[in-house]
Amino acid sequence: METFHLLSAGIAQVLQWQDLLAMLIGLVIGMAVSVMPGLGLVMGVVLALPFTYTMSLEPSIILLTAIYMAGTYAGCFTTILYRIPGEPMDVPLLWDGWGMTKRGEAAKALGWALVAALAGGLVSSAVMVALAVPLSKVALSFGAPEYFAAVFFGLTTVVALADNSLTDALISMCIGLFVSTIGVDPTYGSERFTFGQSILMNGVPYVMVLVGAYGFGEILAKIGQGVKIENRPAAGGVETRFPKLREIWAIRATFLRSSVLGTLLGIIPGAGATISSFISYAIEKQYGKRGKDIGTGIPEGIVAPQIASTASVAGHMVPLLTLGLPGSGATAVILAAFLLHGVQPGPFLFQDPKSTLVVYTILASMFIAVIGMCLLGFLWIRVVIRVLKIHQGILATLIVMFALVGAYADRNSLSDVWIVVVFGALAWVMGRFKLPVSPMVLGAILGPIAESSFTRSMITFHNDWTIFFQQPISASLMGAALLSLAIPAIRAGFGRIKPRRRARTNLQETRSTLPSQ
Amino acid sequence: MLQRVLQVAGALCALGIGMIQPASAETYPSRPITFIVPWGPGGGADALARLTSRLLEPQLKVSMPVINVPGATGQTGLTKLLTSPADGYTVEVVTGDTGALFANPHSRFKLNQLIPLAIMIQQPSGFYVSMNSPMKNWSDVVKASKQHELRVAITGYGSPDALTVAYFKARGVNLQAVPFPQPGLRYSSVIGGQSDVLYEQAGDVRSFIDGKQIRPVMLFSEKPVAGFENVPYSGKLGYHANLPQFRVIVVRAGTDPKIVKTLRDAMAKVARTKEYAAYLKQQYALPTSYIPGKESGAFLHNWLAEAYALGYSKKSQSAK
Amino acid sequence: MPLLRQMKRIGPYIVLMFIALGLYAIADRIIYTPIPGQIGPDVWPKIVLSLLMIVCVAGIARKLMTDPASQSDQSWMEAEQPDSEPVAQGEDHPRIVMIVLAGTVAYLLLLETGGFFLCTLVYTAFVMWCGGVRRPLVIGGLALSISVFFTFTFMKIVFVALPIGSEPFSYVSLGVMKLLGIH
Predict the structure, then answer these.
(1) How far is CA B120 from CA A435, B272, B300, in A?
(2) Which of A206, B72, B222, B239 is most exposed by smallest CB count within 10 Å?
(3) What is the DSSP string of A362-412?
(4) Which one of A51, A87, A174, A175 makes the best mutation probe of the C interface by having the most chain C beta carbons within 10 Å?
(5) Of the candidates B110, B148, B115, B158, which has an alpha carbon nearest to the alpha carbon of residue B311?
(6) Which of A43-52, A181-190, A247-256, A367-376 has the highest mean pLDDT?
């Protein structure tokens, strides 16, 4: 009842014009960036960050969350209509979406995607709102060993699920973890790996790694690919036709399975929308009633990945709000926005009524954002989809400028801009060597938390290594982490049973440089 | 080549637009003054800077944009100030946490690199325990520390927090300093029970005190603290650990004395406003917080001597 | 040349391993005031670097043991998907990327001298040209509007002190600021 009361207070807050305006702008930006291939929703969130400096806290977070939410949905339009996956998470939609489009059922495919996004968003938001307070109570008992175990779990998951070899993902992650140690250390104030350069004294902020790898680096990769998009004729109109209730009921198991999966995967730091989408698709194929037909153009193949990617948003927001743990690129930027406004997300947000209201306003905004996004998708997508017509060279220039000036704006320092350029170049080089970039970015994001919680555990428990396995919460998280490292082995086993087909390499190449949301 | 072309283009444009007055001590201030905050927004230093800048703008008749340059116990912001020209167009708020680093004999920074304009706020710090902790007062803390080591949540090593904890440790109170650079984690670690004691300024945790989640067990002051009449203070308990938190506004050493005087006079006017007095009260600060420019140098020297005595002198380390 | 091919496959791992080794040696010389009984600021980076070295060794071993012809490290997400025609085949122009990178470095180096407005004008025109926009009027017009847009948005609305450059370029920046009403 308490939760319901707080949520309605939150909804009342969201309905103020500033918050609604922020949400509307966020939804439109999120749709625009996710419609454009190569421009990810993380980049949308990153580029919007400098504009939140002069806004107050609530509209800032609502704006960024709306971009995040809409970014998991709008990519389905280009995927289904033009066979251009706007985001890596839309790739699974491609097989069945295009399959339906080929049969002239594009409107229906879009309808299924809309229903799926709506269901995924609403169910996971509801689950997370219900869990927020209990989770924050658990979070309050989180000491340094528990934090370390949670981060460790996140890191191993992303490595285990990475779309490349385990070794390469681990290398990428280590680079990210190392990068986060550059600068003045948070415990002793000693200089580490600065080589006497004042540019490195300030350290390497993870937001700059993000802007570099996903913003500047992405554009470099695009320019390298000759920035061209063939204007394919849309197969079928842009209209959306809703599936009948009877049809939805027929695949209720898919709805249930994918919602649960997306939400759960969202809670794990590291497993973003892309991974949720792929896993949900794979599970549907393996265990779904019509699993064998997946890929030929059946609704299940659209519903499963779409639900999971949208559901992962709420799944990610709650660890951020209750623990202060950013599990993905987008939530890392949202964390940065919180810190910019002098608010540290974490269990203590729930300790005082004023900040509790802020939390519930943000949670409430997710419900309204889901509905708003589907409405916009239904009504306005015609306009949004026009961004595909902008010349890619002009778009690239605009994004580069936003990335560079945004980086400068963060701390009024040119050294941050240099970091962006260096990491953009690094991401591009890593892409050429087929090293995945996402584990590096996640390493840079979670590295400071991993280090400080590790060091604090060692200080508090007098260098007792076994402490991570002594308490129930940390021990089970560590166990889950070690278990997740077994996934690649299991996967290899599966691979041997089923004869593999030669994958379409160009998709694989793009993905190795693409962000995991 | 490019540089050359740019130069010519620049010169041509300059002719069209006309000369713009150069800055000097006579015309100071003739353009916006940058106000550096070496901490993230929303914290105590940020609040002070934003208030001061708002109250200073009508005095100086230029705008004073506040910029946040956080990192490394305030050292990143300090580096930014020291690499800007000493022309009075960059000022910074320095806090006690960074100040304590000056007391370290091996510090990279020295006090004489700065000219203080005014001490704007002094707040007593204190030890707090969670409301549901079995320890209710300072003697409970001392007693409990005989049983097992108590964890004190502090900002970081080298800060007044760490020096104070070391002082008590040397006097037989079995405390262990655990650094939490993020204030949120620091507070929740005490409320959640991971840490036993919190070191903090009362003004910063006012909402938790008012919300009956933590209680002060000792405040570091020679005199009783207004608003906490029933809480024992270090002077009364016979400890020589009275380091207050302070926040001082500074410019770089080498700034023209005329400019320094203009700024100090403007600060003095700010200190007489009602808004400033209300701010001090809200922050549980000493009503006599404000120390004008000329005397603030002496205050800083005394403060540093105290910090040195607390943390670095042989006596403080060996007293048992 | 099987040996050369092997070297090409394991080369990056070897380079990374030596970099990690060098950084480990640097981590040994971090200066700090130790606190008895507590781990220093060097321990965490050393753990990370050790892990990196171990993984590099594992990578080398794996590459040496597997046959280069078999694609054992193929993407699992792709592996079982039904066939369809390839999507938007990309071209590969690493040289253009290098040119853009060099241009960006030059832009950052000249920013403090030339000021934000002038440098951005030139830089945006350059990036657009590299991005395949070839009409001079479009480039010029867009470069000007982008420069004005960023100067105005960030200096007037977001309050960011973008570099105005040194004389004589600063006159241009100050002039533009005057025109846009930025004080």
Answers:
(1) 53, 12, 12
(2) B222
(3) HHHHHHHHHHHHHHHHHHHHHHHGGGGGS-HHHHHHHHHHHHHHHHHHHHT
(4) A174
(5) B158
(6) A367-376
* pLDDT (mean) for B192-208: 84
pLDDT > 90 in chain A, percent: 8
- Give the model's pLDDT for residue A490: 66
Average pLDDT on A508-512 reads 39
Split at pLDDT 50, 70, 90, the class of C2 is: low
**Predicted-complex ipTM score:** 0.86
pLDDT at B15 over 50: no
- Burial class from Cβ neighbours inside 10 Å (0-12, 13-18, 19+) for residue B110 reads exposed
Confidence of residue C44 (pLDDT cuts 50, 70, 90): very high
The answer to whether C168 contacts B7, with C-beta atoms less than 8 Å apart, is yes
Q: Which residues contact residue B314 at a Cβ distance below 8 angstroms, ignoring those fewer than 6 apart?
A: none
User: Is there a contact between A417 and C33 if contact means CB atoms under 8 Å apart?
Assistant: no
Q: Do C48 and A53 touch (CB under 8 A)?
A: no
Name the average pLDDT for chain C.
81
CB C40 within 8 A of CB C34: yes
pLDDT given for residue A178 in this prediction: 95
Nearest Cα neighbor of A310 from A88, A26, A118 is: A118
Q: How many Å apart are CA A40 and CA A48, to the nearest integer?
A: 13
CB pairs under 8 A between B and C: 50
Touching partners of B (3+ C-beta pairs < 8 Å): A, C
DSSP H or E stretch at residue A331: helix A329-340
Interface contact C59-A168, CB threshold 8 A? yes
| Contact yes or no for B43 and A142 at CB 8 A | no
Contact C76 A285 (CB under 8 A): no
Whose tokens are 């419609």? That residue is: A35
Three-state SS letters, A423-467? HHHHHHHHHHCCCCCHHHHHHHHHHHHHHHHHHHHHHHCCCCHHH
Query: Residue range A216-225: average pLDDT?
Result: 84
In chain A, residues with a C-beta closer than 8 Å to the C-beta of B180 are: 456
CB neighbour class for B61 (10 Å; exposed up to 12, middle 13-18, buried from 19): exposed
**Extents of the domains making up chain A:** 2-513
d(C-alpha B271, C-alpha B92), whole Å: 17
Q: How far apart are CA B128 and CA B205, in angstroms?
A: 10
Residue A512 banded pLDDT, cuts 50, 70, 90: very low
Q: What is the pTM of this model?
A: 0.79
Q: Which residues of C touch B157 (CB under 8 A)?
A: 33, 35
Contacts with A391 from chain C: Cβ below 8 Å? 131-133
Distance from C-alpha of B89 to C-alpha of B63, rounded to nearest angstrom:
11
Give which of C169, C182, C183 to mutate to test B binding, by max B Cβ within 10 Å: C169
Using CB atoms, pick whichever of A401, A421, A498 lies closest to residue C105. Answer: A421
- Window from A235-249, A443-457, B126-140 with minimum mean pLDDT: A235-249
| Best CA proximity match to A443, nearest among A166, A206, A212, A173 | A173
Question: What torsion do the CA atoms of C137, C139, C143, C146 make, to the nearest 10 degrees?
Answer: 100
Spell out which chain B residues touch chain C, with contact meaning CB-CB distance below 8 angstroms. 2-3, 6-7, 9-11, 13-14, 16-17, 19-20, 32, 34, 63, 65, 67, 106, 157
